[in-house]
# Entry
Amino acid sequence: MGQPALHTEHLGFVGAVSGMSLADIIQVKGGNRYSGCLIVEHQGNTGVIYFRDGDVIHAEQESRVGEEAFYSIMGWVGGTFRSEPKVATTSRTIEQSLGFLILEALRRMDEARIDAPQKPQQQQAKASSSREGTGMSDISVKLSVIPEIEQALVMTKDGAVADDSSYQAELLAANGLFLSIFSGQIGSQFGIGEFKAATVHGSEHHLLLFDSKRHHLCVSAKGTANVNSLDAEIRRVLAQK
# Structure
């Protein structure tokens, strides 16, 4: 008799790529211009998200369809998933961009966490955090003195943010994780060795990613900034004691 399907809950999703959040997985699918569906299971519930050339076009979860189904699935804190590239749909109930969908889903999750009743130990931890400061890592605080930087965060190699649970931080971490994976693939194809740093130049924003032994530093900067000068300034600030 074969092994049963995975039903154990984890802090994160398990499947083709382990240790990633669902937002990370969907970001990677979008970047790879995936077509097919993503089947997600959580505590006996099943949701399906359909992609076409990297765009999310339809979602189903029980009686919900479209964006509400997508947001419902995104609210699950753990579970399992599998990709079905040969499963397609003729339905199109979602017109929003992938970036908008993820940002809105993370915003709703953030609001749900704020509104949820807290256990005594959670309230105590929150009070302790307030007394100690904003919760930003020392590196993020250091880099906040650079005017061109919009946001900086320290994340683990699997995309978990060290000190910030906001939806903006989760979205930036998802972008940073995708950039890390993509840079690693490029490095392997060209035989240039392991990923150490990567930069994406944009008209509205720049994304910079730096690697260390156990973490990544991910930085979002204004599109008007000179990337080479910004890179040098970040390294100079981080070198200060």
Remarks:
- The mean pLDDT is 79.
- Strands lie at 12-14, 36-42, 45-52, 55-61, 64-65, 78-84, 149-156, 197-200, 205-211, 215-222.
- The chain has seven helices and ten strands.
- The radius of gyration is 19 Å.
